[in-house]
Amino acid sequence: MGNQKQPSKATKNGNLTWWQLSLVGVGCTIGTGYFLGSGIGIKTTGPSFVLSFLIAAAGTYIVFRALAKMTARDPHEGSFCYYAKKAYGNWAGFSCGWNYWCSNVLIMGSQLTALSILTKFWFHTVPLWILAAIYAALSIVVVLLGTKGFDKVENILAVIKTAAIIMFILLAFCALFGWIDGGRGTGGFLPNGLHGYFPHGALGFWASLIYAFYAFGGIEVIGLMAMQLKNKEDAPKAGSIMLVVLTMIYVVSLGLAVTMEHYTAFNDKESPFVKAMADYHLTFFPHVFNGAIIIAGFSTMTAALFGVTNLLVTLSNDGDAPKWFGKKIKKWKNLPLPSLGLAACGLVLSIITALLLPGKIYEYITTAAGILLLMNWLFIILSAFRVLKLNGGGKITAIAGILFLLLAISGTLAEKEIRPGFYASFIVMVIIIAIAVFVSRKKKQASHKPAPE
Predict the structure, then answer these.
(1) Which of 51, 139, 213, 294 has the fewest CB atoms within 10 Å, i.e. the most exposed one?
(2) Which UniProt keywords apply (predicted)?
């Protein structure tokens, strides 16, 4: 994420095959944004939310292809922030790094809130902020203990996430064919005509795009992990397979959910998949599925806490953050406690927000996190224009990707309920860019000063 050093020997000789990277990608991407956030998307636009996912998949594919090609041509541990700095200078690398840090802190807050909402399924009377505080404390404890073999645990939890969705798909088919008692039986809620698919019109569909894109969040992590491939040229293949698998899982499962239940029944308080199966006599399903989501979501949130902690160390080493944040404490398993402390402050802020705004907190945080995430993706595509020297078809594809991203970001203005998330992310982005320009000028002035005699 900064200085142009050569990749280490360990980085050059990676041990991952393309299919292993695809599996890790599925695990990093499927999270509470899909399990819970998709309920908001369905409520916003209706059954057409399935189409939103197809558009999001196309936009995500363009972003990943650009990042994978840059990685294959110039492998570097800094990944997308390194390419931003290479393409547009120090201010771009600084902005990219801190924007990514802020987006991940918000993503942690979103996941933290989602875990609390899902846990209220069993503990109805416990306030949201108390549940959030418990999960935040547990996540920090895991980081402080250190977790050797964390990658193996993540792979296991990736299987749990995928298995939960496959379980829903199989049960949903059985329910729709009338093999399970309850619900509407064969056929379900099939929309009538165009209005049935787009009950809130073009504006509702436009506003829903951010939630579809948010469900694909994590693709940029695969760009970082592509450095661990045995063959760096396999990065595009790994991402392509991963996106095909994800899109199939997402579209089929969501298509079944909106067929089994009327779209007005979905909300941001419970998973749409649990809601879709609510009318069927399967007492085990809500508990098992809810538990699987919570376990998977907690692992994702803890991994994100690890990520932002290490990211701040990298920013510090590159001169884009105070040196103090790069300090590691030997007595605490060589952990960067100052960096972890700042990330923990982000979690505390999420808890306070959940206390003050318990009704809309998940929608606000998810919207802001999604917008900042897509800003990072814009950095990736814009960097590719210069790093890859795009022309012809490559340039047209990149422009299409930018339009998809801008469509999703601007769509948050179309919905009054999620508009505050846009304003919050816009303010954060303006502050980051302003500081980036200031720091970049200071560095230039320092480099032009004559050396003391």
Answers:
(1) 51
(2) Amino-acid transport, Membrane, Transmembrane, Transmembrane helix, Transport
Cα–Cα dist 180/178, whole Å: 5
- 200 close to 47: Cβ distance less than 8 angstroms: no
Instruction: At 239, list the tokens.
Output: 């991402």
Does 282 reside within a domain? yes
pLDDT in tens, 132-152: 889 988 888 877 765 454 556
- Per DSSP, 39 falls in state H
* H or E segment and range at residue 260: helix 235-260
Q: Is residue 314 part of a domain?
A: no
Is the separation of the CB atoms in 56 and 34 below 8 Å?
A: no
**What CA–CA distance (Å, rounded) separates 31 from 155?**
13
* Percent of the chain surpassing pLDDT 70: 84
Per the domain annotation, does 324 fall within a domain? no
Query: Whole-angstrom Cα distance, residue 152 to residue 449?
Result: 50
Q: Categorize the per-residue pLDDT at 48 as very low, low, confident or very high, splitting at 50, 70 and 90.
A: very high
Whether residue 202 is contained in a domain is answered as yes
Q: Which DSSP string corresponds to 170-205? A: HHHHHHHTT-SSBTT-TT-----HHHHH-TTHHHHH
Q: pLDDT tens digits for 147-205?
A: 454 556 666 777 787 788 888 899 988 888 878 876 555 555 677 778 888 988 999 99
Pair 294, 131: CB distance under 8 Å:
no
Q: Report residue 448's pLDDT band, with 50, 70 and 90 as the boundaries.
A: low
| Number of domains within the chain | 1
- Burial class of 76 by CB neighbour count within 10 A (0 to 12, 13 to 18, 19+): buried
Q: For residue 419, give the amino acid letter.
A: R
CA distance 205 to 377: 21
For residue 48, give the nearest of 274, 175, 201, 260 by alpha carbon.
Answer: 201
The predicted-structure confidence for 378-388, as pLDDT tens digits, reads as follows 999 999 999 99
Residue 4 has what pLDDT?
A: 32
**CB contact at 8 A, 312 and 321:** yes
CATH number of the domain at 395, please. 1.20.1740.10
